[in-house]
Design goal:
Largest sheet: 6 strands, mixed
Number of helices: 14
Shape: globular
Strand content: 5-15%
Low-confidence stretches: none
Radius of gyration: 22 Å
Bound molecules: ligand F0G
Length: 435
């Protein structure tokens, strides 16, 4: 169907065949061709200057929905939503650390740290919109497959909304903090004897058959929320876009969301030009990077393997729209090894910033792009850190306490007797035996 007459404020449209359905249609895929749906908005009925004025006025405002770094942008996220399930979320900082300029090779690197969200990852931005929409369509339960962050976020927002949540996660490899959060917030948690790609296929079937509302990033309302990572970033930069935005990529929901945010922001006069996107995958989970290297002539599916478990995904669901995002922004896709990810993470952690392993892929990728000459040292770059350092304590303790030989960044703890002499020995004091 196509809307012929006056368009509603928002509707959904199929990215593959152009079929249009109403905003409140709960199915995640097009009912004609099974393509992924996208939310479309009528251009805001106020000027870009007025939009910027409203976004600025709401920033840091009193508690309430507009205090959210997602709902502050509601005219371009979900204008028709009247009551929203908001923590609030967003309002994440832009950080600058000289040590990380040096490490990555650019003169002035900014880090947008999405780990500062309420459940510790960017997923909260998509989930506040997704769970709001679930209530609007009268869903009786919500569900997702996850490598851990989506499930933690879904569990928290479903708990707030008072709606049951079902999550499917791989039985092995979900980082400790994420599994613990998911259980604590009260989601019904299924440990599936399979990988993320199998979890996603299974949950998609189940939600179609059981009428449960699916909240993976194939859900277009999640994408609307995740656009605000960039809207907020652009606002923090006074709507002056950087040259590059570098970020980790797995299921490609963020890549799709970033492409849409930039397309709309330019169409609606918020920015004069679009930055280039650089999506970074882990070498063992890099089907998108492989397609990019071959000019997107073919889509690949791989059996994923990486210690950055958040992006251990072999068959990314948002392939098509992510490809559009890369092509439209003259972007690049690359992959980095687990060793490089660990090195980047150690640098980010040692700068006092900290992030989870997958997030560090962004800096590892940036360093490669600088070394390769694809990004000049004087270009303005923002790297997105997607998750909090405490998401994956298991990997951290292994890195610092267990790995043999100790990696360069390892900070081994030292066990001592409860005596001053023992302490002095360690610190190289007078009783340290000549140290
Ligand atoms: N970084 C982190 C910390 C993530 O949790 C994810 C995805 C990504 C990057 C990649 O983002 O999928 O949009 O390309 N985590 C999902 C999950 C898959 O289930 O939590 P993407």
């Amino acid at each position: 169907m196509k809307f012929q007459t006056e368009r509603p404020a928002s509707w959904q449209s199929c990215g593959s065949c152009g079929n249009e359905v109403v905003e409140t249609d709960p199915l995640p895929r097009c009912n004609l061709c099974q393509g992924l749906l996208e939310v479309r908005h009528r251009p805001p009925d106020v000027s870009s200057a007025e939009l910027v004025r409203r976004f600025t006025e709401r920033r840091g405002g009193p508690p309430g929905a507009t205090a959210s770094g997602v709902w502050r942008f509601r005219e371009v996220v979900l204008p028709s939503a009247e009551s929203v399930v908001s923590h609030p979320e967003g309002n994440t900082p832009l950080l600058h650390r000289v040590a990380l300029d040096r490490w990555s090779g650019v003169d002035h690197l900014l880090l947008k740290h999405e780990g500062y969200n309420p459940t510790g990852s960017f997923k909260d931005r998509g989930m506040t919109v997704g769970v709001t929409q679930a209530l609007r369509v009268g869903a009786r339960a919500v569900a997702c497959a996850s490598t851990g962050n989506t499930s933690a976020s879904l569990a928290a927002y479903a708990a707030q909304a008072g709606i049951p949540a079902l999550v499917l996660v791989p039985h092995e490899g979900v980082a400790l903090g994420k599994l613990a959060q998911t259980l604590a917030y009260g989601a019904r948690t299924l440990l599936v004897r399979g990988d993320f790609d199998q979890c996603l296929r299974l949950v998609e079937q189940a939600t179609t058959d059981l009428g449960v509302y699916l909240l993976n990033s194939i859900n277009p309302f999640r994408i609307e929320g995740q656009k605000t990572i960039l809207l907020e970033l652009l606002q923090q930069l006074s709507w002056e876009p950087p040259n590059w935005i570098v970020f980790p990529a797995g299921n490609l929901g963020n890549t799709a969301a970033f492409g849409k945010a930039l397309r709309e922001a330019r169409e609606w006069g918020l920015i004069p030009r679009v930055p280039r996107l650089a999506a970074v995958q882990a070498e063992g989970a890099a089907p998108f990077a492989r397609s990019f290297a071959e000019g997107f002539s073919q889509r690949y599916r791989v059996k994923a393997e990486t210690l950055a478990t958040a992006i251990k995904i072999g068959d990314p669901a948002s392939y098509e729209r992510a490809m559009a995002a890369i092509l439209e922004t003259n972007g690049v896709v690359l992959s980095v090894s687990d060793t490089e990810i660990l090195e980047a993470k150690a640098a980010i952690d040692a700068a006092g910033v900290g992030c989870e392993p997958a997030s560090a892929a962004s800096l590892a990728g940036l360093r490669r792009l600088v070394q390769r000459g694809a990004i000049g040292p004087g270009e303005s770059v923002v790297a997105i850190l997607t998750g909090h350092i405490l998401k994956d304590p298991g990997l951290l303790l292994n890195y610092h306490q267990v790995m043999e030989p100790p990696p360069a960044g390892a900070n081994r703890p030292i066990e001592i007797e409860p005596t001053l002499a023992a302490l002095e020995r360690v610190l190289g004091g007078p009783n340290s035996g000549g140290g």
